[in-house]
Amino acid sequence: PSLTTRLYSEEDPVVILTSATVKQTLVNSSTAWLVQFYSSWCGHCIQYSPTWKALAGDVKDWEHAIRIGVLDCAQENNFDICKEFGIHFYPTFRYFKARGPTFDVGKTYRGADRELQTVRQLMVNFLQNHTRQDWPVSCPPLEPYSSADILPLIGQKSNQYTAVIVENEDSYVGREVILDLMMYQGLTVKRALSSERSLTEKLGINSFPSAYLLHPNGTHAILHVQKRLRFFFSSFLKLLLGVHRKLSTSGAPQEPLLEGPRGPGTAEALKDFEKSKVYMADLESGLHYLLRVELATHQTLEGEELKTFKDFVTVVAKLFPGRQSVVKLLETLLEWLVSLPLEKIPFDAILDLVNNKMRISGMFLSDQLQWVGCQGSRVGLRGYPCSLWTLFHVLTVQAASRPDALANTGLEENPKAVLQTMRKYIVNFFGCQECGKHFEEMAVASLPQVKSVDQAVLWLWRKHNQVNGRLAGTMSEDPHFPKTQWPSPDLCPICHEEQDGIHVWNEDTVLMFLKQHYGAANISPKHMY
Ligand code: FAD
Fold it and tell me: Which residue intervals define the domain ERV/ALR sulfhydryl oxidase in the entry (predicted)?
């Protein structure tokens, strides 16, 4: 690997600059930049790199206003350019204004405090240092609005939501939430100061920061979040019905949502469901698809594939908290597989068993696809991959709650049995090959650290969030079901905390939440065939 990839890689949310790209990137850029000139041999830079990556991840949604870059001055090709920028010490932090017409060496940040929150606030200040002429094109206004601006909007109908963050002058929450939501459509966020008495009186706000929400239909109310912190406000607003991430990568303003809350291209109404439930219809539809569609493309199973299939059937037969007819079917399939001395099984034989032979004795798995919690706003979104995640979360939770369930299977001593089965299934059979590759990379990097069934539950949760983070705003995202870091504060407020202005998970609480959410008692039979 090159020196650059030692500290920062393409997987990180930073932009890796080089002598070949840095000038053309910074001159006349549509966004402002904060660039760290570092040296890959400098111990301090190495120690600091996790903070820098965390910062870049934290402000990723601001990237159409200000971006985070890195340039490795220890790389031979970059020697000259670092000289030209006058970099004497590492790391050096430089800000570059948007729309700078000619090459300039940027403005150095000399502060000793390089904590994430401090640097993030400096980024906000730096954005505000732009003038009307060089203001980054897609950056929303960050200045506070006055009572006179806001009061006339109250009670008015509109084609989108307006959220008003009312806060003290030294607070950054409003500006951070404005930037967090800049990639979203269906909503405008404004800020106003607590000193605007006529506004605070009219809205009945007396503690700060608070958020007030004006709905498109003219109704309005204070926004109730469990903790009045940036992360809570931002995630609440991102999840409003009708608010979704702009799909365009340019970040250019898009048409407001006029068609109503579900937007264009929606064929039929969504089935009613609750986010706080898991649906058996999804799990059974997923199993049906997996057995009769995905696996059925394999004519015979042998070797590693057969072993993977057997382990998969073992794990579901023993752990799936399903209807009797389905569990019986899985158990019988397992007995049959175990009893067969064959090294190669034609998949047709399995299908015949599942579709015909077992039905006679009342064991069956519906052959309808019925997505409920996994329904998409149009065909091709969500569905099967959603059900597969759901299934494996349910199975890891079952393995943690019923320690004896895998007795006499050969998997009972292994706290990673479910995850290893999932990993092998994904690599060998999951139709999305790219997904399998990514999942395998994550497994190689961190699965060995999992030492208990509880850690297995958390590992899958953490990796799923990593995937959500990578896919947010891409074509895989159903605009009506935006990819968020899950569980969002509305589902589990006590899972979230803030330390030094940075969002952190309370993992003990997350574990409890996962066990409840994916536990057998939370699986709803609604909409089942
Ligand atoms: P999903 O991500 O499928 O999640 C389903 C449900 O699980 C959510 O509705 C929510 O209720 C819950 N949930 C969400 N996050 C978590 C969490 N952290 N812990 C527990 N529960 C959670 N697509 C790609 O385009 N590229 C990929 O590389 C890729 N890799 C994948 C790897 C695997 C192993 C799988 C199973 C799928 C992968 N996909 C990938 C598909 C993608 O992750 C989604 O499944 C798909 O886009 C459908 O998304 P969704 O909105 O239904 O939510």
Answer: 377-486
Q: pTM of this prediction?
A: 0.81
423: alpha, beta or left, given left = phi > 0 and alpha = psi -120 to 50? Answer: alpha
Cα(467) to centroid of ligand 1, in Å? 7
Same fold, 3-128 and 147-245: yes
Ligand 1 pocket: which of 467, 468, 484, 510 to mutate (most atoms <8 Å of CB)? 467
Q: 462-481 pLDDT, tens per residue?
A: 999 999 998 888 888 888 88
Nearest to 426 by CA among 464, 479, 398: 464
CATH class of 147-245: alpha beta
Q: Are strands 244-245 and 184-185 parallel, antiparallel or unpaired?
A: antiparallel
Domain boundaries, given as residue ranges, for the chain: 3-128, 147-245, 278-524
Q: Are strands 344-346 and 496-499 parallel, antiparallel or unpaired?
A: unpaired
Distances (CA, A) of 449 to 445, 453, 469: 9, 12, 22
Instruction: Give the distance from CA 44 to its chain's centroid.
Output: 30
Q: Is it the case that residue 256 has pLDDT exceeding 90? A: no
What single-letter amino acid sits at 314?
Answer: T
d(CA 326, CA 317): 9
Residue in 301, 319, 280, 355 with CA at minimum distance from that of residue 456: 319
Atom of ligand 1 nearest to the CA of 389: 36
- 45 noted as active-site residue: yes
> What phi, psi does 486 have (nearest 5°)?
-110, 145
One-letter amino acid at 402 equals: R
8 Å CB contact between 376 and 382: yes
- Return all residues near 203 (Cβ < 8 A) that are at least 6 apart: 154, 164, 166, 212, 222
Looking at every residue in the chain, the average pLDDT score rounds to 91
Task: Kindly list the distances between the CA atom of residue 17 and the CA atoms of 72, 82, 93, 374, in Å, as whole numbers in the listed order.
Answer: 8, 11, 14, 40
CA 55 / ligand 1 centre spacing (Å) = 24
pLDDT (tens digit per residue) in 293-343: 899 888 899 999 999 999 999 999 999 999 999 999 999 999 999 998 888
Which two tokens mark 224? 């109730």
Neighbours of 47 (CB within 10 A): 9
Ligand 1 in contact with 426 (CB < 6 A)? yes
How far is residue 158's CA from residue 143's CA, in Å, rounded to a whole number?
A: 22
- CA-closest candidate to residue 415, choices 425, 429, 405: 405
Distance CA(279)–CA(27), nearest Å, equals: 52
Q: Give the CATH class of 3-128.
A: alpha beta
CB-hemisphere CA count at 13 Å for 47?
6
Q: How far apart are CA 231 and CA 315, in angstroms?
A: 37
465 ligand 1 Cβ < 6 A:
yes
Closest atom, ligand 1, to C-alpha of 422: 34
